[in-house]
Design a protein that fits this description.
- The chain is mostly beta strands.
- Helices cover about 5% and strands about 55% of the residues.
- It contains one helix and 17 strands.
- The protein has one helix spanning about 1-15; strands at about 20-30, 35, 40-50, 55-65, 75-80, 85-95, 100, 110-115, 120-125, 130-135, 150-155, 170-175, 190, 195-200, 200-210, 215-225, 230-235.
- The strands form four sheets. Strands 3, 4, 6, 7 and 8 form a five-stranded antiparallel sheet that branches.
- Strand 6 (about 85-95) and strand 7 form a beta hairpin.
- The longest helix is centred in the first third of the chain and has 16 residues, at about 1-15.
- The model is unreliable at about 1-15 (pLDDT under 50).
Length: about 240
């Protein structure tokens, strides 16, 4: 009888702890920049819920890692994953843009690696800080009565597949006119502090009335993660 019980336990262990091989393709993508993330370290984590009266919670460990290529892609071939209902797997970005990323043990729809022969995942990593200053060259020189300049800078507006709402919005605005408190201005005027924003494609809108002639322009300016960029505005 004991022998039969031991055999049964052994069989159960085989079915609950055996591993399945999986080929995984990961693409790390920054939607705010509209481009892949190269040289990012991608890891596969094994996440498991641990029960208990005082220490219940989810714990995870890294089981594999790879570095993305010029297309933001990396591959994990024949990775062995456990067949266990208490264990889940996910892909996370651990390092990008020359800095470590904070990741958690949460397994989301976007990051989950399933027990299939092949997995193809696009990891969205689009929220990085950046900074900018605004520099005006020859502001309102020359100018005449009623001349003015107004600018607006909009942080990256982008959409992530599967998300209901777009991200991004206004971040900076300024207005100067002939005869205002700062007039006449020096040849170079630069903001005293850096404005914090989300790295990506910023939209610069300029309304200008110079010597009575009105012009409006729209430009796109890329600011990369952790960069401090000077945005020059020519009068």
């Amino acid at each position: 009888m004991k022998k039969q019980i031991l055999i049964l336990v052994a069989i159960l262990l085989v079915f609950t702890t055996c591993r399945k091989k999986s080929n995984i393709s990961i693409t790390a993508w920054n939607y705010a920049l509209g481009e892949p993330i190269t040289n990012a370290e991608v890891i596969i984590i094994e996440s498991q819920y641990k029960g208990g009266l005082f220490n219940a919670g989810t714990q995870c460990k890294e089981i594999a890692h790879a570095t993305t290529d010029a297309n933001g892609q990396c591959f994990f071939d024949n990775l062995k994953l456990k067949k266990n209902q208490n264990v889940q797997y996910a892909a996370k970005i651990k390092y990008s843009y020359d800095k470590s990323d904070n990741y958690n043990c949460n397994v989301t729809e976007n990051s989950e690696i399933k027990l299939e022969n092949s997995n193809n995942k696009v990891l969205n990593s689009s929220t990085y800080d950046c900074f900018f200053k605004v520099q005006f060259n020859n502001l309102l020189n020359p100018s005449q009565t009623n001349d003015s300049i107004a600018i607006g800078i909009i942080s990256p507006k982008y959409e992530v597949p599967g998300q209901p709402y777009p991200f991004g919005g206004g971040v900076y605005s300024g207005w100067s006119y002939y005869g205002d408190n700062g007039f006449p201005y020096p040849s170079v005027v630069i903001s005293n502090y850096s404005t914090k924003s989300n790295a990506g494609k910023h939209v610069l809108k300029i309304y200008k009335k110079k010597m009575g002639v009105v012009t409006q322009t729209i430009d796109t300016i890329k600011i990369y993660p952790y960069e401090t960029k000077t945005i020059e505005i020519n009068w």
